[in-house]
Amino acid sequence: MKVTNRTFTAAAIVGAVIVGLTAGRLFAAPQGPAGPVAPAEPLTGFGMASKPPTSAVMLFTGKPEQIAANFYKRYSKTDGDWTVDGEAATPNKDDLTSKVEFGDCYVHAEFKCAVDANGKSIGEGNSGIGLHGRYEVQILDSYGNVNPGAGDAGALYSQKAPMANPSKKPGEWQKLDIVFRAPRFDGSGTVVEKPRATVFFNGVIVQNNTEFNGPTGIQYGEFKGMTKTGPIVLQGDHSPVSFRNVWAVSL
């Protein structure tokens, strides 16, 4: 089903982000004699919401029944089957696809890369969040990587590396806040603007209104082409990454 209520009461979230970016002139890198100069340290200081707005679709907030109520087991119309332990949901070697579809949206998700008894990441912490089921923001145990690439945490998977790497140690909870802009179409249905995402990873901006070239690998043969709306996918077929506090707001 689609979200048809476009009312957005989370202006304090996205509005603060946009105003903060504009006022701080963070859309333009500092200029030097030879061109743009990289900032000396990651851009931080944004106040992300500690609570979801009233207009948010609460996909998973720790209640076991939310997995079946709000998600399908991918490639089916069977209710989601992830295991819920306390407030965290852990995959059963499959992906979840939200039953609600979104166009432009703000997505918040918290995740934790699983560790073994020695504190080593299990399966590299490999997961992701798929917007429209097509465009993946990567999750990975990238802790300590000083030169993150297009396969690291916070990347637009396989397409655009994050601008910084604020990854925490595996076993610690981390946050992704994603402002997603859906593709635009003309009257004949031709794509005239590709989708974009601004990504805050643990409060650090790692993607700034970055364009997706097209669908990434997370589509797995599903969700062909570009559309106005689509589901949110939580990837669980790679590593046992846990999720909590997953919600979305239509913009």
Overview of the structural elements:
- The chain is mainly beta and 251 residues long.
- The chain has a single domain, classed as Exo-inulinase, domain 1 (Jelly Rolls).
- The chain contains two helices and 17 strands.
- The protein has helices at residues 11-23, 64-70; strands spanning 31-32, 35-36, 57-60, 71-73, 83-85, 88-90, 96-98, 105-112, 127-131, 135-139, 174-181, 184-185, 191-193, 196-201, 204-211, 233-234, 242-250.
- The longest helix has 13 residues, at 11-23.
- The chain is globular.
**Rg from Cα:** 18 Å
Strand content: 25-35%
Residues in helix, %? under 10%
Mean pLDDT across the residues is 85
CATH homologous superfamily, by name?
A: Exo-inulinase, domain 1
Strand order of the largest sheet: 3-17-8-11-14-15
3D shape: globular
**What is the number of E strands?**
17
Category from helices, strands and their pairing: mainly beta
Can you summarize the main beta sheet?
A: 6 strands, antiparallel
User: What count of helical segments does DSSP give?
Assistant: 2
**Termini separation:** 17 Å
The CATH C-level name is Mainly Beta
- The CATH architecture comes to Sandwich
